[in-house]
Amino acid sequence: MAADRAAARYIAVEGPIGIGKTALARHLATEIGSQLLLERVEDNPFLRRFYEDAGRHALQTQLFFTLDRYRQQRELFEQGLPADGVVADYLFAKDGIFAGVTLDADEFDLYRQIFGLLDEQIPKPDLVVYLEARPDVLLRRIRKRDRDFERNISLEYLERLTEAFRSFFYDYTDTPLLVVQCSEIDFIEHSGDLADLIHEIRGMRQGVQHYIPLGSR
């Protein structure tokens, strides 16, 4: 624990809906003794309406998320990185991924202008852990957790979102990046998968690395 605190880091866990970001962030923060920063998904008053009619409510939904995350991060990092480090279940820059999938051209142009002004003021993580899985796996996990406002999520939407995430992180160079293939593991249900994954994260420092657990396809 002392070694972790001496090398306190800001770690962001990212990936598409249903991948297990929050569960991993909780476990990781507990394991290394860091503060936990969670996105407040269910506080968004537009989210339910977005899943009912994405075309009408995408911009309001996206702007609420972006502004809320901006305020959250500014409050936490106002005095610099906390001494015990931070583990977040989102990367601030990822908001542009959802915006690119859900907004029309004019809305996206407006959104990018707003996002650019805010992003300049947000600290970059020391490490991003990007979790990825096949869309059918994501849909199965979303159905299993059974949040009422997610029941209208389609496989087609997850396919588009998954591809957008892959494209974003294919060119991502802002921070060290650990890419984790999660289609054939379940670190939420299986402690062995979780322990192996946390071991990889703790050892990651520079560059881009890919973690494909044994048995993955």
Describe the overall structure.
The chain is an alpha/beta fold. The chain has one domain: Rossmann fold (3-Layer(aba) Sandwich), CATH 3.40.50.300. Helix content is 50%, strand content 12%. It is built from nine helices and six strands. Helix 9 links the parallel strand 5 and strand 6. The chain is globular, with a radius of gyration of 17 Å. The N terminus is likely disordered.
Rg = 17 Å
Largest sheet entry: 6 strands, parallel
Q: Count the strands? A: 6
Provide the low-confidence segments as ranges. Answer: 1-6
SSE sequence, one letter per element = HEHEHHEHHEHHEHE
CATH level-1 class: Alpha Beta
Beta-strand residue percentage: 5-15%
Tell me what the CATH architecture is: 3-Layer(aba) Sandwich
Distance between the termini: 35 Å
As for the number of domains, it is 1
What is the CATH third-level topology name? Rossmann fold
Question: Can you count the helices?
Answer: 9
Content-based structural category: alpha/beta
**CATH homologous group name:** P-loop containing nucleotide triphosphate hydrolases
Strand adjacency order, main sheet: 2-3-1-4-5-6
> What coarse outline follows from CA principal-axis ratios?
globular
Helix percentage: 40-55%
Calculate the mean pLDDT score and round it.
89
